[in-house]
Amino acid sequence: MRIVNVQPPAWWWETPGESLARALDVPRINFGDLIRDHLRQGTELGLRADEIMEAGGAPLDELRTAIVRDHLRREAPAAFLLDHHPVNVVQALALDELLHELGTPLDGVVRLRLPEHELERHVRSVADRRVCRGIPTHGHEPAAGTPAAEGACDVCGAGLHQRRDDEESTVRARFGTHEARTAPVTRYYAERGLLVTVDAVGTPDEIAARALAALRRRGGRVG
To answer: Fewer CB atoms < 10 Å away: N or C end of the chain?
Structure first.
């Protein structure tokens, strides 16, 4: 199974994508993890992506495509769940071309829709998270109902800070534009008969079970 998961910027630790990948018994490829791997290794792609995100922006189409291409060509997974990519038609077309070259076309696309009543809780969760100043891949999210604090990293002891792209105003703007920004790509996949839409309510496992059932109803090779 090769699945694309289109979800709002709502989860940080355990996500429906992780749960769905386990249910399908396929590796999960998270676009954010790919960027962090490049940053950790000091590659040109990682440094370019981090510079853009620290300024509150999103990686450009060609940069996102290059990062995904690097991973898929290097690892050549026969099956996968791809999270947070593609997010527009340009990226989807580039992914289609790459997967055609590799002989591994998509089997389905899951669109997770966040109902309005869930939005505020997710905005606060993202805005409260902090990142280690020493090692950016050390992330910290306070427990529910606990105020965010700068504090120190409980992994290495370095100070914590809030990334500019996690500031509340930026998070709200990102949520506000998500549906409009991803509508063309979800329509593209719907026209190809690959799309299922699932309400992102409940635990990640509950959402994943709902998505798996929707994929099975759509048909195709679903585990």
So the answer is: C
DSSP helix, strand, coil percent of the chain (3-state; round to 5): 50, 15, 35
DSSP label at residue 152: B
CATH superfamily of 2-115+179-218: P-loop containing nucleotide triphosphate hydrolases (3.40.50.300)
pLDDT at 14: 63
Supply 151's token pair: 């504090």
116 SS3 class: helix
**What sign does the dihedral 7-11-13-14 (CA atoms) show?**
negative
Contact indicator for 8, 121 with CB cutoff of 8 Å = no
How far, in Å, CA of 139 to CA of 131, rounded?
Answer: 5
Q: pLDDT confidence of 142, banded at 50, 70, 90? A: low
Q: 6 near 176, Cβ under 8 Å?
A: no
* Rounded mean pLDDT, 145-165: 70
Distance CA(68)–CA(84), nearest Å, equals: 11
CA nearest neighbour of 4 among 13, 12, 20, 15 = 20
* Tokens representing residue 113 in the block: 């829709």
Q: Are 33 and 139 in contact (CB under 8 A)?
A: no
pLDDT at 59 over 60: yes
Determine the pLDDT at residue 144.
47
